[in-house]
Amino acid sequence: MSAIVKAVIPVAGMGTRLLPATKSQPKEMLPVGRRPVVQYVVEELEQAGLDQILFVTGRKKSAIEDHFDADPELVRVLSAADSYTLLDELAYTSTEASYFYTRQSTPLGLADAVRRAERFVGDDNFVVALGDSIIKNGSGTGLLAKMVEVHLSSGAGCTIALEHVSPEETYRYGIVAPVAGADTSVAFEIDDLVEKPAPGAAPSTLAIAARYVFSPMVFEAIRRTAPDRKGELQLTDSIRLLKQLGQRIMGVTLQPGERRYDIGNFESYFTTFIDFALADEKYGYMVRQYLKRKAREL
Ligand code: UTP
Question: Is the pTM higher than 0.90?
Answer without folding.
Answer: yes
